[in-house]
């Protein structure tokens, strides 16, 4: 009696019989008759939906695609065009480029959606095929990054996302040859398999998860950050020639210097200053002229738009532009002629900007200084490089900074003080140490110069009525400010109520906490109350900086937003044909949304990578006692920010005492039902590191002491880690509320 063949057997037969792959041919080959034909049809549909069998088997030229094939839609490129990739490509050369050309009647497809497309070859274009939709097959499959565990029947994938504990089953024919313990990327296929686990197919093998540089690689793949430049983009970058003086002002006599981190590979801003007789100053900020090399509509432009920004990890940078530009032609290296767009800004004796003008020119950096080096010179300890620059560079810069600092004090932008962690790695990629970066006046000097230059760019383009992208930061919602007020009150501080919110009100709160045990907590809570900044063609102001008009102009090597502003300045001043194109203007809103999303994507990837590195660093210290402070409270437990590393760990409910805890979301507090123990924001704790999982970045803690006191003992917990919940009588609830109110009053 004939039996239904497996999918593997069907695929092998189709491969061996490329000219006979109809359902009738397959049924005849395996002797399938009657009701089994229905099951065979189901199998073939699943194989077709997965892209495993297609009519392509009739076409024997491996270097060409069949006229009908299964495609996956890619994200829009820099020009807004949609391209697709074939799910199967067996040629020796690179995958052909396929332009998707939807008709008005076609349903909308999104990134990652799969569809059956009809292809037409288009010789002479920058793409080889044009595709029309026949029908949509599936929506974009869910992607998983995890550790592959080999089993007798295929394997399973253990996810590496923090808080994700669902595993995925992989059939033997879908492992892509992955070895046990290997890091893989997979996508969901079909319904749940046996044991109720969802099914997945391995689509990429990422190697040993414990290998050097694997931590950032995980984040890159998890968040879908493009990290390989297409050949056409690399070729276009490497074909660029240094800019000439044509159409440029000669700014090479200006005492411009770059001041950056000591390990910086690119330098996209240079500064200079001159002290005026009236006590004011003239400031120059010269910014790399990336627009000269990245022309609208070019392969470089499309890729830069797609990436949106550079992404920075402790062990690598995923740049927006290829190294030939980012680290060479566009980088303002010492002693080398480089094209720039520069702004000259005039300050009065009070630090107010009383005028500015823009220039497209050629500069030559006098020196590439590190922050520490410039600070030492300003403090009267110059080295051999900075000694000759004291009168022409260092003293004028610090004089101008003093003026800007006075103006900043009057303007009262949000004055957050959040220490930045620095993860130092060994040559083989292991965590050597975790420290907090030291903040110098040299850092603040560059920040203030760049803020002023960004303001000048926004004002200039607004005055000229040119389209641009503003950097927008709207004021926080009332709900978030109320939550911050609760934190302030619980910590013994006040945030005034019933008035229009200004940054000065928040600065007064920050000043109250400065130097106290609650300093970092109030800073973090204030930051969390803020809305997220974003890009927009319309100007809604910048609340955090207390500025009416602000645009990003100073980092075009690493931000596409700045490149748009540069092009707008070029168009507005009539400096050349490489300014803002009609296409740039038509899709300004789309660009704003896209690069706001890529910025958030990079921030999430950078944060996840830091968490994993910290967990790896602490994994050798499991069982060690540490001190910290409660930084967040939820019904499932509390979060603790550890003093030494700044890492965040979870204190689960089961690790807090031996009683049931009531969660008061208004007071951000857990209250013990039997002892009245109160656990709230800002409290000092001593904890034991119970678990550190480098693959997810998760830290689990056990609570030992609260505000210097050991935990009171309550009744024994039940099997699930909690004591039986007491009856919610009115008297008990009232007692809990009174405890919460007492905490608030303190």
UniProtKB/TrEMBL annotation:
It catalyses: Exonucleolytic cleavage in the 3'- to 5'-direction to yield nucleoside 5'-phosphates. Keywords: Cytoplasm, Exonuclease, Hydrolase, Nuclease, RNA-binding. Residues 705-746 are annotated as: Disordered. One of its GO terms (molecular function) is RNA binding. Pfam families: CSD2 (PF17876), RNB (PF00773), S1 (PF00575). Residues 623-704 form the S1 motif domain. The keyword DNA repair does not apply. One of its GO terms (biological process) is mRNA catabolic process. It is found in: Cytoplasm. InterPro entries: CSD2, NA-bd_OB-fold, RNase_II/R, RNase_II/R_CS, RNase_II/RNase_R, RNase_R, RNR_Ribonuclease, S1_domain. PROSITE patterns: RIBONUCLEASE_II, S1. Its EC number is 3.1.13.1. The keyword Protease does not apply. Signal peptide: none annotated. It is an enzyme of class 3 (hydrolase). One of its GO terms (cellular component) is cytosol. HAMAP family: RNase_R. 3'-5' exoribonuclease that releases 5'-nucleoside monophosphates and is involved in maturation of structured RNAs. Belongs to the RNR ribonuclease family. RNase R subfamily. This is Ribonuclease R. It comes from Paracoccus sediminis. The gene is rnr.
